Amino acid sequence: PLTVHRKDYRPPAWLVPEVHLTFDLALTCTCVTALMTVRRNPQAAREECICLLGDGIVAETVMVDGGIATGWHMEGDDLILPLAQDDAQITILTRLDPAANTQLMGFYASQGMLCTQCEAQGFRRISFFPDRPDVLSTYTVRMEGSAAQFPVLLSNGNCVQSGALDNGRHFAVWHDPWPKPSYLFALVAGRLVANRDDFTTRSGRKVDLAIWVRPGDEAGTAHAMQSLKHAMAWDEQVFGREYDLDVFNIVAVSDFNMGAMENKGLNIFNTRYILAEPDTATDADYDAIEGVVGHEYFHNWSGNRVTCRDWFQLSLKEGFTVLRDQLFSAAMGSDAVKRIEDVRILRAAQFPEDSGPLAHPIRPDSYQEISNFYTATVYNKGAEVIRMMRTMAGEDAFRKGSDLYFARHDGEAATCEDFISAMEDGAGLDLAGFRRWYEQSGTPHVSMTMKHDSSTGAVTLTFVQRLSASGDDQVPRPMVMPMKIALFDRSDSAPGEFRAQEHLLILDARECRFRFDGFGEAPMVSANRGFSAPINLDIAHDESRLQFLAMHDDDPFCRYEALQQILTTEVLATAAQGADTQRRRAITDIFSFTLADDRIDDLMRGELMTLPPISVLIETAAPADPVALQTARIALQAAIGTACADQLSAVHTRTAQHRYSLDAGSRGARKVRNHALFLLAAADGDAAARLAQRQYENADNMTDRQGALVAIAGVQTSLRDTLLEDFAQRYRDNALVIDKWYAIQAGAHHPHVLDQVSKLAKRDDFSLRNPNRVRALYMAMAGNPTAFHEASGAGYEMLARLILALDPINPQTAARFVPSLGRWRRIEPARSALMRDALKRLAASSYLSRDVREQVDKSLG
Ligand code: HT7
Ligand code: ZN
User: Fold this and answer.
1) Helical ranges in 731-793 per DSSP H
2) Are residue 457 and residue 432 in the same domain, yes or no?
3) ipTM for the assembly
4) Is 277 an active-site residue?
5) What distance in Å separates the CA atoms of residue 208 and residue 231, rounded to the nearest whole number?
6) Where is the Peptidase M1 membrane alanine aminopeptidase domain (predicted)?
């Protein structure tokens, strides 16, 4: 397969300032006429032909300047057209069958409606085009079709004309005045209803907002609309970014490969990130909707107004936009809890990626299939890298840097280097060494040691970096990073009042040393506060320090982190050599302290009641026995549940009094209620099953009901089947809730879980054509050690069979399952061999898409 290299970038030989598209719409045969004004690019080497990229489409007619073109030919999927002149009008006609498009890339049908997905390279499945992000055009789109079948016709920009035609047909013309790359083109046609609202920008522009859904779903759009209006106001206040069209449309579709898409003025969303009502969506769903609606809206500047020069620069828009959505969500809710959640995601998803065969820098050097690079590294580590710039610069200077970036590059296709330069010039940072974050893969390891001289009161902190991976052909080099620390003086704090001055240190060499004076006693160090750098930080093992921080650190992240370290050590030790009563006692004491601590709210308390995710435990233990780790994790939950039973029951009772609302107090109550239930269920399944049943039956919201079902799904009781059946019946008409039902069963710690997954896959309402359903069942299975790492290798086999079955239908979604098998290097030898066998069987398959092939080959690597 062809590998694309970053170093091979050349500017486009031809520009396309204007595009007129006409769609004659029908479910199985849509005719597309593309009229392109093309112009030679004076900044590029002269080429005698224009290369119009295609993917699985056929040109029925090709015209140049109004006459039938001759002399063009196909090279693979691409159309090569000789052009002697400097300017031309090219017209190409293609015919599409959206109903047969199961890949959900390009133009496809979903539940009777028609829609597009063009990022990254879907436009070339609609029309032949220089489908690359550095070719920017203004689009005018005319759609016509049956008024009964497609009453709503939407595209980017503003609707400039619409009306009735003969034979029950109608048309609409949309014009987008902002030049954009083809990946931001969008079209939607179907029977849809809108939740309408409006927003007035700070300069007084009234923007009509609409969220379009299938009839019957309108009631579920209120939170998304509220989130959108909050996002629009926040981007003005915090980043000085104002919306730039008269309308902003969002459409929700049920069949979608990712979360959402930021098409200019016409965002298309997975229904999952739009629809929410208390009875059907959890608090986590509400948060995700706010975050994704914000994310897509923020792309209007970081992605659309300033786009990417090429796909190697993906983190330019994605890393920056993730940081923007993280800051937005933090501002809308709890800063502390949001930071903890973001770091948990980074650790659980990105750290394993960065230590495995699919590791890549946030700006990759090469790819075979770009869809495989929409990764936690590009998105989440990319956000961390920009967050570090913000930490080093401070908020005000960072804003100056981002203002300069937007001013310099508005209307352009930019690079990561452009962003860094703007930050240097605008924020006044020297980022010479910092650029390595863009070049090197791998999570840096930093070890910290402290020396205290009691005669002088001096404290010396020494940080040493150990580097494990690098970009292509490079020797690993140290990273530059901000390190926030605080030293707690044990002697001068009143009990319960531990405060320390925070210091921002910059680590810029393999070894860095810092001295602090005035400590009669050795202080307690709190380091990497707020997770100021995305690293693994080793601090010489000191249980009393960790226990102190787990109860008293005034940095919420570090308090959480200290407890996570204690719990991780305990689970790993239990899996290797059994439990130790003294260690357990220390842990249950901390839990008991946390449950009673009135300095924190319930949202934070819920974080402190959360055990490390299994993927983090596997990553830390490598080579890991995932089943032993899972068993040890449950045993620790049981120990906590037993030791703190009275307090946990009291929490469960106290929080049952809360009325449902979305405010922090009510959400916090639901969070700790569920965590209390999980811990109690691990300790005494039968008793907790009765508690769960009551919670389930009394629930007036999905957080409570789902929490109860999760708790009971891991218990061997007849109530389990009763409640699962009730849930299926109660929500049979709501696909998003039925997705939860699939995931809960596939993720349960249950001896027959693999049989259950097999049965679920045979149900009538399971379909490989719906990515949400496939992910619900098989991502949950792949994340469940009891299922996926079952000793016979049946879980690996099941996943490999899924990948082979799904690949011809939806290669992008199929490829997303390969990394689970690619983790074989981190797993103990017997299972590791079985995982590799499954990968080898995939590699030997006679048909593999480019998407799956790249992931399989690299995973075997
Ligand atoms: N920028 C969007 C990426 C996306 C995408 C990529 C590949 C295939 C399908 C896709 N759907 C959306 C999403 C985002 O980051 O906002
Ligand atoms: Zn994005």
Assistant:
1) 735-746, 753-761, 771-782, 785-788
2) no
3) 0.99
4) no
5) 15
6) 224-434
Q: 14 and 140: one domain?
A: yes
Cα torsion 755, 761, 763, 765: sign: positive
User: What Å distances lie between residue 184 and 137, 156, 161, 577, CA to CA?
Assistant: 10, 8, 21, 55
Is there a single domain that holds both residue 428 and residue 460? no
Q: Count of CB atoms within 10 A of residue 149's CB?
A: 17
pLDDT tens figures, 454-473: 999 999 999 999 976 555 55
Say yes or no: CB of residue 138 within 6 Å of ligand 1: no
Residue 859 has pLDDT above 60, yes or no: yes
Number of structural domains found in the chain: 4
Which of these three, 501, 533, 565, is where a domain ends? Answer: 533
Q: Which atom of ligand 1 is nearest to the CA of 122?
A: 8
Residues 144, 262, 290, 296: which is the catalytic one?
A: 296
CB 595 within 8 A of CB 635: no
Same domain, yes or no, for 125 and 172? Answer: yes
Summarize pLDDT for 642-696 with one digit per residue, the tens. 999 999 999 999 999 899 999 999 999 999 999 999 999 999 999 999 999 999 9
pLDDT at 256 over 80: yes
Determine which helix (DSSP H) or strand (DSSP E) holds 140, and give its type and residue range.
strand 137-146
Instruction: Tell me: do 398 and 478 sit in the same domain.
Output: no
Instruction: Indicate whether 390 belongs to any domain.
Output: yes
Average pLDDT of the residues in 89-118 = 98
Does 371 contact ligand 1 (Cβ within 6 A)? yes
Give how far Cα 317 sits from Cα of 303, 370, 410, 505, Å.
5, 15, 13, 28
Average pLDDT over residues 840-859: 98
Mean pLDDT over each residue of the chain, to the nearest integer: 97
Q: What does the alpha-carbon distance between residue 130 and residue 54 come to, in Å, rounded to a whole number?
A: 9
Domain end point (choices 533, 548, 571): 533
Kindly tell me the burial class for residue 795, based on how many C-beta atoms sit within 10 Å of its own C-beta (0-12, 13-18, 19 or more).
Answer: buried
Closest residue to atom 12 of ligand 1, CA basis: 261
pLDDT value of position 493: 56
Q: What residues contact 475, with CB distance under 8 A and at least 6 apart?
A: none
What's the CA gap between 571 and 632, in Å, rounded?
5
| Domain CATH for 484 | 2.60.40.1840
Q: Is 214 domain-assigned?
A: no
Q: How far is the CA of 295 from the centre of ligand 2 (A)?
A: 6
Nearest CA to ligand 1 atom 10: 258
Residue 758 belongs to domain spanning: 736-861
CA distances (Å), 353 to each of 111, 361, 382, 787, in order? 35, 11, 13, 21
| 492, pLDDT greater than 90 | no
273 lines ligand 1 (CB under 6 A): no
Instruction: Reply yes or no on whether the pLDDT at 154 is more than 60.
Output: yes
Q: Please state, in angstroms and as integers, the Cα–Cα distance from residue 552 to each residue in 30, 380, 524, following that order.
A: 64, 29, 11
* DSSP-assigned letters across all residues of 274-323: T---TTT--HHHHHHHHHHHHHHHHTTTBTTTBEESSGGGHHHHHHHHHH
- What percent of the chain lies above the pLDDT cut of 90? 96
Task: Kindly state whether residues 354 and 497 are assigned to the same domain.
Answer: no
